[in-house]
Amino acid sequence: MIEINIISALSDNYIYLLRNTEKNITSVIDPGEAEPVEKILNQKGWHLDEIVNTHHHYDHTGGNAKLRDIYGSKLIAPIYEKERISNVDIFVSDNDIISISGIETRVIHTPGHTIGHVCFYMPEENKLFSGDTLFYLGCGRVFEGTMEQMWSSLSKLKTLPDNTLTYCGHEYTASNAKFSNHLDPNNELLKIAFSEIKTKRANLEPTIPFNLGKEKKINPFLRVDDKVFTNSIGLNTTSVSESFKEIRLQKDNF
Ligand code: ZN
Ligand code: FE
Question: Roughly how many angstroms between the first and final C-alpha of the chain, as a whole number?
C-alpha cells in the first residue's frame, strides 16, 4: 500500500508525495517547487528517493534541482522531453513498466498538452497520475500537440478501469465544473458532483483524487465520441476529434 500526501503549491498546483511504508521508499511527482516538499520530508523524517515528472513545464519541474541537490534523489522523466528537463537519471517511454516508490507503474505517453507528456498508472493500487492531460471535469490546454493527439491521449486514459483514482496536476475543478454544467445541465451525476465540489472548495479542501469511472460519464472531454451527448449539446461536427476541438475551444473562451 502506498500513502499519498497531497501538497498544494504555487497558485493551484498539486505535488504528490508518495510513501511506501513497507519498503521505506519515498517519491515525489511533479515538484513545481522544492520548499513545501522539503518541509513535509523534514516533519516526517523521510528521505526523498525519487523525483518523477509528467512533463517539462516549470510548474511541474521547478523543484527538481533543489530536491535532487539535497537528497541525491533519482530523477525519472519522459524521454520525449529530454531536451527540456535537465539531469534526468532514468528516462521512461510509452508502455514501460517501472517502479515508483517500489510500486509497479505503467508509463502512458499522452501527447497534446506537451509533445512528451506522460501519465503514470499503478494497476495494483488503482491509481493514475494524470499531470496536465486529464483534470477533474476537464483536460489540459493543447499547447504543443494537435487536437487529434490530445483526444487520442484521453482515449487511452478512458480504457483504464472504472475504479481508478485519478490525481491530476492542478486544482481547476471548480471552473471546469461550471463549464461542464453549462454544456450539460441535465446530467444528474454531474449535478451531484458539482454540489460536492462547491462544498469542498468552500472549505478549501482538494477535490482530488477523483473516480475515473464517474469521470467517463460527466467529463465532456471524455464524451466527444458519444453521439447522443454531442447531439444533445448541439455539435454538428463530422468527426470525434472535430467535436473534441470544438469543446476545447469553447472552454478556452468560457
Ligand atoms: Zn503543464
Ligand atoms: Fe501545469
Answer: 40
- Residue 7 belongs to what domain range? 3-252
C-alpha 236 – ligand 2 centre gap (Å): 31
* Residue 15 alpha carbon to ligand 1 centre in Å: 13
Q: Read off the pLDDT of residues 200-228 as tens digits, 9 standing for 90 and up.
A: 999 999 999 999 999 999 999 999 999 99
Q: Which ligand is in closest contact with the Cα of 13?
A: 2
Q: What would the pLDDT profile of 24-73 be if each residue is shown by its tens digit?
A: 999 999 999 999 999 999 999 999 999 999 999 999 999 999 999 999 99
Domain at 9, CATH number? 3.60.15.10
Q: For the chain, percent helix, then strand, then coil, each to nearest 5?
A: 35, 25, 40
- Total of domains in the chain: 1
